[in-house]
Amino acid sequence: MSVLKVNEVTDIAGLGGFTFSSGSITCNGTLKVGNISINGSISGSSSYIIPSMSGQGGKFLSNNGQSLTWSSTIVAGGGGDAGFRSMQVWTNNGTWYRPSGVKSIQILVVGAGGGASGWHEGGGCGGVSRRALDVTNISSVNVSVGNPGNGTSYSGCGGNGNTSSFGSYCSGSGGIGANCSQNRCGGYGGNGSGGNFNSYGGGGTGYGDWSAYGHSAGSASYMGGSQPSSNQQGNYAYTHQSHAAWGSGGTGAAHSNRGAAGRDGVIIVYEYAG
What we know:
There is one protein chain. This protein is mostly beta strands. It folds into two domains: 8-72, no CATH class; 74-274, no CATH class. It contains one helix and 15 strands. The strands form four sheets. The protein has a five-stranded antiparallel β-sheet with strand order 6-15-8-9-14, with no helix packed on it. It has a five-stranded antiparallel β-sheet with strand order 7-10-11-12-13, with no helix packed on it. The radius of gyration is 33 Å and the shape is rod-shaped. Residues 75-80 have low confidence and may be disordered.
């Protein structure tokens, strides 16, 4: 059997063909085939070659307009290495530590609510702030959650709610207590600052006579409503003052009874890998 050894094979014009070197064959030009049967692997630097599948289980093939790459599906609860990973909630002071793999976060801060007084005057709720933050170079942040203002009897001034803050990045000030800014008036809401979105909290109801019993309530916060009111039981709101959404203002009492305290602030951090 004879053996033909050459370095390359070209067409008559010398424009296309094959080059042979060290056990490999290079096509110079366009190779047109009907079907290809491959028993090994395909590799190279072309953007059309699928990247290695080794260690890429559960991922899908995507492109950035220039090349192919393996990407993770977004799974709530921490699956994969992209998208939403986890959530942390603070109702007391603490410290946020960046979890491994987290690159960005969304922060929700709500200030504490103001306390109510004794003739239906309700407290203002805490201000709210939301911010998106790149935490690639941030390892930890101090978290401060505002305490609420206490309720009081008429014509006392309800306590002011305190500020909640996520480090120096964003904060929500507390709601003002009833009868504090002006007699017989509900407290006004706190305000958010530092975020991509900042808002005042709602204000509380003002003075009401006997016919208003059961129709007053504390200010609703970003998180929801305040304590229940009552037509007959004067201390009903105060008795159930923990039954309210975070950051809401206290509900006023009937006929000189004690109004409810506002509700504590809250901070929620949503954590993302991308």
